[in-house]
Each structure stands twice: as C-alpha cells, then as structure tokens.
Write a structure and sequence with these properties.
Elements: E1 3-4, E2 10-11, E3 14-16, E4 22-26, H1 34-49, E5 58-62, H2 67-72, H3 110-122, E6 126-133, E7 139-143, H4 147-157, E8 161-162, H5 173-180, E9 185-191, H6 196-215, H7 220-229
Parallel strand pairs: 4-5, 4-6, 6-9, 7-8
Antiparallel strand pairs: 1-2, 3-5, 7-9
Helix pairs in contact: 1-6, 4-6
C-alpha cells in the first residue's frame, strides 16, 4: 500500500524484484478510463507468472491510482478533483488560478501526494502512466527525456509517438515527473473503444519493453538529476 484515497480506500501497489533500476507503472488515475487499471492488473498477473522478466530490475505497479473515481466512473476523485491536473508542476498555474477541478492548490489530494511520495521514495528510472482516449488521439505520449522509450513502445504496440497531446495539461503528472523532474515519462493513451483483452494484446510487449528498457543503462540526464537531488527529493 502506498497511501489512501480521499474516501479512505487503500492505494495498493505491488512491487516486483529486489534490486536494480525501478520502473513505475500506474493506471486508473481517471476513473472513467477503466481499461487503464485493467491493463495494469493484467501486467501484474503476467509478472506473477514470469519472474524472469524482472530479474535485474524492480517493477512497481499501482493499478488503481483513483479507486474512488473508478468506483463512481468519474474522471475525478470523490471530491471531483482531476488528479492529473493536481500535481505541483511548474505549469500548475499556466491557465491562471486553478479551477475547482484542479483542486484548491497543487497536491491538495491524498492520491496525488501518494504518487509523489512513491516517485520520491523509489526514484524510478522510467514511468508509464496509463490512460485511455478517443481512438485517433491514442498513442505513446512522452514527457522529459523519453522519446527513445516512446519509439521503442511504438515498435511493439504500433501506436504513434506523441510529443504533445495537442492541448494544455497544467498540473499533469507528465509535466511534473517528465518535464520538471526529468524522469523519462510516458503517458500511454489506449483507444477508449478497446476492451481490456485487446488493450493487453496490443500493449503486452510494449510494457515488457519498458521493463527491459529500465533494466538497461539509465538515461544520463536522469542519472545526473538523481545525483544532484539526493537528499532533496523532488528538486
């Protein structure tokens, strides 16, 4: 467990492996995108059955980052806050004062704080945040030094590599983790009309490639960032 939701439900994370670089994967931050959580659960099942996949790295998977929203089938949490606009990114106030759906202030929500603390504690080498979106807008969207990772995923899932989603994302996880923290971060946007099994079949090898990528050499900029920020998480 890495924290609790606003309603008090546990945020349950499973960690595979005991040593090596960490890849952090999470889904379900938007409660109206249930296949994102189901895909993360399928990956957990796969790693349970195939321990050889993580023999030289660690994999942390949080399938339901917003359990309240998933239960309600709402984008935001039980308080109506869009958690993917609640991170303390440098662009949090890019659209002026935050609206109610962004939260009263950055990291106001316990779910947001739990994810931030997980990143600070585990210092992941790579991150994938799973979402879903209307078909035609789906793809491997990257933030920070992650273009090569997005291209590697694209070789396996056939999704386009997206340097931007084409709209403003103030306070998003990708802005905070990828742009500000310089951690290679992918927002995997699934086609919303796919069912869970199709999402798994399309993305199994792409997600395993991310794990393999994490087991390889760490990006130089991330290594520099980690050394520089040791003892000062998140700076």
């Amino acid at each position: 467990m890495c924290g609790h939701s606003r309603h008090g439900d546990p945020l349950t994370m499973k960690v595979f492996g005991t040593a090596g670089p960490v890849v952090f994967i999470f889904g379900g931050i938007h409660g109206d995108e249930p296949t994102s959580a189901l895909l993360a659960c399928r990956l957990i099942d796969h790693l349970d059955a195939h321990p050889d996949v993580y023999r030289i790295c660690r994999v942390a998977i949080l399938p339901e980052a917003n359990p309240d929203g998933l239960a309600l089938r709402t984008r935001g949490n039980v308080r109506g806050v869009d958690l993917n606009r609640n991170f303390p990114a440098s662009n949090y106030l890019a659209d002026g004062h935050p609206s109610g759906v962004h939260g009263p202030y950055a990291a106001s929500e316990p779910e947001t704080r739990a994810i931030i603390e997980t990143v600070r504690r585990m210092q992941p080498a790579r991150i994938v945040s799973i979402h879903s979106i209307r078909r035609g807008r789906h793809g491997n969207n990257y933030d920070g030094p992650a273009r090569a990772l997005a291209e590697e995923m694209s070789r396996h899932n056939g999704y386009p590599v997206l340097p931007t989603m084409g709209y403003s994302t103030p306070g998003s996880f990708g802005s905070w983790a990828g742009v500000d923290q310089r951690i290679p971060t992918i927002t995997l946007e699934l086609p919303a009309d796919n069912n869970a099994e199709t999402c798994w079949q399309e993305n199994r090898e792409a997600l395993l490639a991310v794990i393999g990528f994490a087991a390889g050499p760490t990006d130089g900029r991330f290594a520099e960032r980690t050394t520089r920020s040791r003892g000062r998480p998140g700076k």
